[in-house]
Write a sequence for this structure.
């Protein structure tokens, strides 16, 4: 993970502090004002050729097919870029522009973290486009979308609604068609910017129709610090492959995990009947089947992204808010977010879809609550369900919470998967 203050404390020798991408993705205005999130999204529309008008937007997406001839046939045909080429600094002026607060404000006078997820997603896309910027091309032929939120680590539990926020970030690793973008968020308090969170997103580049993989510019690290970041990106890729290979959907639990499941089973046996079927809930515990919360969203055009699909940030916001509500109900108090881990975007969500969200408390330990949110689209004509995303959130409460107890084998696998994500969060 990126160190909490890396992007704020980079030396001038290795990273020139600025509020725009050197490739021309986003610049200060004539008054020297730092760009905000509205300008980030406007710039993304310009890069792709998207429109805020629904009918014009549909035509613009159809016209993008003609850009396919501009794609590189090999990564070697593209010039290498530096990390500083994709560096961006964007402000969210919650303190200096009170009229903006309404969008971000919660009833309890804190900031809606779901909105922050939307902003991080937009920023990660623009950072990636900054890396692939070609001054000779008016519209980018690449369709860059979010593939994975690898990690979001919280440094502060409270985000204040009346203080300015600053986002900074840049590309730290590149594959053939994938890009890792690290971002840092800080908030102005008591005369200085204080670290709030670090985020790592993995983006993928595809052709203009968003159907096939496309090559992106290679990355050339400069100096030992940047080389270390690049190697961390390589390690992150290897870790993701290893975790996927060891998925409980593919292989059996480890010996230690099997002992955990069997211990839970023994602790829930009815000692009066001594039957495999008779189970008793231990004190201060909740059956996993009773710790669910579900929601439904009709996906309207208003929530579309620049590629005519449902905006990934919108999906993250809805999943987070449902997961938070479930953790709140389970713990009996307002929980604080500790980390967002391993959000996998398996399939795009089309406009007009019925999006079904299901949150499940899957692991608890002391004051911690691990929540998994599963999202799927439902086709009412065929009655088919298709998984689109899996979200993992770690929350903490101000008191110890009840133990979550699985009853079936499937629930036991959810329990172990939640434990894996929790352990990874604690270790990082």
């Amino acid at each position: 993970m990126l160190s909490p203050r890396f992007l704020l404390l980079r030396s001038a020798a290795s990273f020139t502090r600025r509020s725009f991408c050197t490739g021309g993705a986003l610049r200060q205005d004539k008054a020297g004002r730092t760009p905000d999130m509205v300008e980030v999204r406007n710039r993304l529309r310009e890069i792709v050729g998207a429109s805020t008008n629904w009918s014009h937007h549909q035509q613009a997406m159809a016209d993008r097919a003609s850009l396919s001839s501009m794609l590189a046939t090999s990564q070697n045909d593209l010039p290498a870029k530096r990390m500083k080429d994709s560096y961006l600094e964007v402000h969210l002026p919650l303190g200096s522009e009170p009229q903006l607060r309404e969008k971000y404000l919660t009833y309890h006078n804190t900031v809606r973290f779901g909105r922050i997820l939307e902003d991080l997603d937009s920023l990660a896309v623009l950072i990636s486009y900054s890396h692939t910027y070609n001054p000779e091309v008016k519209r980018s032929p690449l369709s860059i979308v979010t593939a994975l939120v690898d990690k979001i680590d919280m440094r502060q539990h409270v985000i204040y609604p009346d203080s300015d926020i600053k986002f900074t970030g840049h590309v730290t690793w590149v594959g053939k068609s994938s890009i890792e973008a690290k971002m840092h968020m800080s908030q102005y308090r008591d005369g200085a910017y204080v670290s709030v969170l670090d985020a790592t997103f993995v983006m993928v580049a595809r052709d203009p129709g968003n159907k096939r993989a496309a090559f992106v510019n290679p990355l050339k690290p400069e100096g030992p610090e940047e080389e270390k970041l690049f190697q961390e990106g390589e390690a992150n890729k290897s870790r993701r492959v290893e975790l996927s290979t060891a998925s409980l959907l593919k292989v059996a639990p480890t010996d230690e995990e099997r002992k955990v499941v069997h211990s839970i089973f023994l602790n829930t046996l009815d000692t009066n009947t001594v039957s495999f079927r008779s189970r008793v809930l231990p004190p201060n515990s909740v059956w996993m089947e009773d710790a669910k919360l579900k929601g439904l969203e009709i996906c309207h055009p208003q929530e579309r992204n620049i590629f005519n699909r449902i905006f990934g940030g919108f999906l993250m916001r809805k999943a987070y808010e449902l997961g938070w509500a479930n953790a709140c109900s389970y713990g009996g108090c307002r929980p604080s977010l500790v980390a967002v881990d391993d959000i996998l975007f398996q399939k795009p969500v089309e406009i007009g879809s019925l999006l079904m969200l299901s949150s499940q408390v899957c692991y608890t330990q002391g004051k911690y609550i691990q929540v998994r949110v599963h999202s799927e689209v439902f086709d009412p004509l065929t009655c088919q369900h298709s998984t689109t995303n899996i979200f993992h959130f770690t929350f903490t409460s101000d008191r110890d919470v009840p133990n979550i107890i699985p009853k079936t084998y499937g629930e036991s696998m959810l329990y172990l998967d939640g434990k894996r994500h929790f352990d990874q969060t604690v270790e990082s």
Summary: DSSP finds nine helices and twelve strands in the chain. Residues 291 and 329 are 9 Å apart (CA to CA). Residues 223-245 form the longest helix (23 residues).
